[in-house]
Amino acid sequence: MIKKSDIHERLASLIGQELTNENLHEALFCEEKHQKIRRRVRNGTHAYLKYRIRTAQNHNAQPVVDITISGTPNIYRLALEEKDGKLIIQSEPRINFSVL
Question: Cα 60–61–67 angle (5° rounding)?
């Protein structure tokens, strides 16, 4: 399992990069011990995180992405910006503590 501080640091390293499933998995599971996880993701047999893009009704507000990592109870939120049809990560991650 990845520590909360490591997740925060690894997601922060994605600022300025495009939001893709592959980029998220590569950033979070970058250690040598995660080779098996990365191989499963590349083959398409497993997904260890889910993300949902949220856009506000107000067109002036920035879209955000909520990232859920399996094995972690927290939801991480990042601000996005659309450039040339791609979603670019613009902010450091924040933990969303809302509970159902």
Answer: 155
- Answer yes or no: are the C-beta atoms of 93 and 12 closer than 8 Å: yes
Burial of 3 (0-12, 13-18, 19+ CB in 10 A): exposed
- At residue 15, what are phi and psi to the nearest 5 degrees? -60, 130
Q: Does the pLDDT of residue 98 top 70, yes or no?
A: no
Report the SS3 class of residue 5.
helix
In this structure, the number of other CB atoms found within 10 A of the CB of residue 29 comes to 20
Give the 3-state DSSP-derived string for 6-56, with helices as H, strands as E and coil as C. Answer: HHHHHHHCCCCCECCHHHHHHHHCCCHHHHHHHHHHHHCCCCCEEEEEECC
Distance CA 91, CA 71 (A): 24
Residues 6+ apart with CB under 8 A from 51: 19, 21, 24, 65, 66, 67, 68
Would the pLDDT of 58 be above 90?
no
